[in-house]
Design a protein that fits this description.
The chain has nine helices and twelve strands. It has 267 residues and is α+β, with helices and mostly antiparallel strands.
């Protein structure tokens, strides 16, 4: 016995044949072959993205908005690798960094490798900063809004402090060479070289764009009445008001505490 559904299907086949376009109900094999595989469009698109016109030979891709856009829009990790055809582009030189990667002050400098300055990081979820602090160098209090930080000293020693949030205690440590600490995401923290020799640290981040905000510069960038209200009275520092004090805030990396400067004979 055949089911009623099967009998109904068989009875409707002649009507379907009449309504179908020339060539029958099912497409011919020739039509399928001319259509090509679905992946051909993807292959073509990938070939266009990975053409040498995007990344010419012997050309830096740091801060290149076209390359960064293609990498950010790539469908797969293998596509990102193919977009950057030159092996040398996967190398970052902290001694000779690209433009717009260095933050420099009287106490030293830091060099940032993130998704903008080092586009091969796009899709990896990581970035790095190398800090060079001279004698009494002071990486002023700051936060990273989008990542925690692991900080390891590779030369000299550092004094570190961080405060996670209101109500949390301040965590203080002295790090010697090859010792490490962690600064939780968003925590207010600082690093200070208390010695008369150079110190170098490596900071790793779980974000391609961890961001940074220097506390003093940001706070005193608010309107004067907001700053004074937060402090609780009319603000003066060495006889200067808020507007004048803004110009006195040192650029990061700054020179540190007075006792260290005297010890090292730094004016």
């Amino acid at each position: 016995m055949y089911s009623s559904s099967l009998l109904l299907f068989v009875s409707l086949l002649p009507l379907a044949a009449l309504a179908a376009p020339q060539g029958g109900i099912f497409p011919a094999a020739s039509n399928l072959s001319t259509a090509g595989p679905v992946s051909s469009t993807t292959t073509t698109a990938t070939a266009t993205i990975t053409s040498s016109s995007i990344v010419p030979a012997n050309t830096s891709i740091a801060n290149d908005p076209v390359v960064i856009e293609h990498l950010a829009l790539a469908a797969k990790a293998v596509d990102r690798i193919n977009i950057i055809p030159h092996d040398a582009s996967f190398k970052f030189d902290f001694d000779n960094p690209p433009e717009k990667t260095k933050t420099e002050g009287k106490g030293g400098h830091t060099v940032r490798a993130d998704r903008q300055s080092f586009p091969p990081l796009i899709g990896t979820g990581v970035s790095m900063v190398l800090g060079f602090l001279g004698p009494c160098g002071f990486n002023t209090p700051h936060t990273h809004p989008r990542s925690s930080e692991i900080n390891i000293v590779v030369q000299g020693s550092l004094q570190t402090e961080f405060t996670l949030e209101n109500g949390a205690r301040t965590v203080r440590n002295t790090l010697n060479t090859r010792q490490m600490t962690v600064f939780p995401q968003g925590a207010l923290h600082t690093e200070f070289n208390p010695n008369c020799d150079d110190a170098i640290f490596v900071a790793g981040f779980a974000s391609e764009d961890p961001g940074v905000q220097q506390v003093a510069q940001s706070f005193f960038g608010f309107d004067q009445d907001v700053v004074e209200a937060a402090i609780g009275n009319d603000f003066t520092f060495q006889g200067e008001g808020v507007k004048q004090f803004r110009s006195l805030i040192p650029a990061n990396v700054a020179l540190g505490v007075e006792s260290c400067l005297k010890k090292c004979g730094i004016n």
